[in-house]
Amino acid sequence: MKTYSEDEARKMLKEQLQDWAVNDKALHKEFKFSTFIEAFSFMTAIALEAEKMDHHPDWSNSYNKVKISLTTHDKGGITEKDFKLAEFADKCVAS
Ligand SMILES: C[C@H](O)[C@H](O)[C@H]1CNC2=NC(N)=NC(=O)C2=N1
């Protein structure tokens, strides 16, 4: 599986995804909700998808905020799997 350079990743983000940043060889975004329950429901949806993909986010939650970092640890950088999970996360808040 190809590992994308940070510049390649930034270019791909522009074409596909909203408000993600690239640094430290990972995709990053902070999602903000109205309540803790909304934030935690979002995390639950992502957790189930992550388990299916066998690809897991590095993340933190504080009340209504969820910070997500996506990188492919066993490749040491950003791969297609990170873009797929980022797309899924954006889709969860769009619906
Ligand atoms: C053994 C197992 O398949 C690996 O450890 C998987 C699990 N989830 C993972 N998640 C992420 N984000 N990166 C990985 O390299 C990774 N590897």
Automatic annotation (TrEMBL):
EC number: 4.2.1.96
Catalytic activity, reaction form: (4aS,6R)-4a-hydroxy-L-erythro-5,6,7,8-tetrahydrobiopterin = (6R)-L-erythro-6,7-dihydrobiopterin + H2O
SUPFAM superfamilies referenced in this protein's UniProt entry, alphabetically: PCD-like
Molecular function per GO: 4-alpha-hydroxytetrahydrobiopterin dehydratase activity
Family: Belongs to the pterin-4-alpha-carbinolamine dehydratase family.
Any Pfam family matching the protein: Pterin_4a
Name of the protein: Putative pterin-4-alpha-carbinolamine dehydratase
